């Protein structure tokens, strides 16, 4: 994990990336697993799938789209193999590059950065996003002296990881207020697990904490905090993060890859169309059953996956905004990468024939 006090946006260290990319490119074979079954169109027998097990990392207290898909039977006969938790999107997709996992999810800006550096990845389906129900806010305590954007300079801001969604939101917010990169660098970014951010804020260990979705609502219920701004205020509704597979995996396991995306797409639509109480009940049962010693009480605050596109369909505009941001910030060169080269919808059953 990167130094919590490093503030360079979307940084993936040269040493870490070179090691990850070298390991990935040297892999001669992919893991064997097999998707299929379920209730979807064109279901196949188990023998029609190239792999039957997909390794992944989880997020504590959270039900991810693939986990929901498996629970609903949309991935069968594919099974997910949990290898541990992460709090970092960039780290999650780096494990896909190294071959330690088969799929991962990260903020689209982090996906762009890694692919631009040469990682053989493709985004295949949306994983999370921002809407009027699911968003992240930058919070301070009620008695905090921080009132205006300039008050953030020199302060400590807690977030789940660096080089991803929350760092970009903070820098976009300050950039819109007219601050230079040198001034923005005066803000100290502190990496904390999301479940610890509220406590750190209330104990004055940090000046600002990013609180999102269910953790945000739980903290607001307790009172004593106020928002400075949110990602929803900055950009409105958008798919913010995507699931990625390696190009090798897609080429060598086309049926398994398609089943994974189909299952995720259908799970997104199930969550969108199912009564909220039913979704929450299913989440609670799933979390309790997997036995990872997680707090299910926070799930009552769940409202939305936040994914904008139907079935998690991806669009160029969801990547172009971050390409432009990275170019402006000097992280990418103009024309270095095209949005269309970052993702594919051809595995998604909700895509039109032209996609």
TrEMBL record:
Cleaved signal peptide residues: 1-28
UniProt domain SsuA/THI5-like: residue ranges: 91-276
Keyword Disulfide bond recorded: no
InterPro entries with a match to the protein in the record: SsuA/THI5
Sorted UniProt keywords: Signal
A Pfam family that the UniProt record links to this protein: NMT1
Record's keyword annotation contains Signal: yes
Alphabetical list of PROSITE patterns matching this protein: PROKAR_LIPOPROTEIN
Domain of life: Bacteria
Protein name: ABC transporter substrate-binding protein
Naturally occurring in which organism (per UniProt): Sorangium cellulosum
């Amino acid at each position: 994990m990167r130094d919590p006090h490093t503030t360079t946006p979307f940084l993936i260290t040269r040493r870490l990336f070179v090691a990850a990319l070298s390991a990935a490119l040297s892999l001669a074979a992919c893991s064997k697993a097999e998707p299929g079954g379920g209730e979807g169109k064109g279901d196949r027998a188990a023998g029609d799938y190239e792999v039957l097990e997909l390794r992944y990392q989880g997020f504590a207290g959270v039900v991810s789209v693939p986990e929901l898909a498996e629970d609903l039977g949309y991935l069968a006969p594919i099974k997910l193999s949990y290898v541990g938790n992460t709090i970092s999107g960039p780290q999650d997709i780096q494990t896909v590059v190294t071959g330690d996992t088969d799929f991962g999810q990260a903020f689209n800006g982090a996906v762009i950065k890694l692919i631009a550096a040469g990682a053989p990845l493709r985004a295949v389906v949306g994983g999370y996003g921002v809407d009027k129900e699911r968003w992240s806010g930058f919070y301070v305590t009620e008695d905090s002296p921080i009132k205006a954007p300039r008050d953030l300079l020199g302060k400590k801001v807690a977030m789940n990881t660096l080089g991803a969604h929350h760092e970009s939101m903070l820098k976009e917010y300050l950039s819109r207020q007219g601050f230079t990169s040198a001034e923005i660098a005066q803000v100290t970014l502190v990496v904390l697990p999301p479940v610890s951010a509220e406590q750190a804020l209330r104990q004055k260990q940090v000046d600002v904490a990013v609180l999102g979705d269910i953790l945000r609502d739980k903290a607001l219920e307790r009172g004593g905090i106020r928002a400075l701004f949110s990602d929803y205020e900055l950009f409105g509704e958008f798919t913010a993060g995507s699931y990625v597979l390696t190009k090798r995996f897609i080429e060598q396991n086309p049926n398994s890859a398609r089943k994974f995306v189909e299952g995720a797409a259908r799970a997104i639509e199930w969550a969108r169309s199912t009564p909220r109480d039913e979704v929450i009940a299913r989440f609670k049962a799933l979390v309790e059953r997997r036995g990872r010693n997680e707090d299910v009480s926070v799930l009552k605050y769940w409202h939305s996956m936040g994914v904008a596109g139907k079935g998690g369909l991806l669009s160029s505009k969801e990547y172009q905004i971050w390409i432009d941001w990275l170019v402006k910030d000097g992280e990418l060169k103009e024309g270095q990468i095209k949005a269309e080269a970052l993702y594919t919808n051809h595995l998604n059953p909700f895509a039109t024939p032209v996609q």
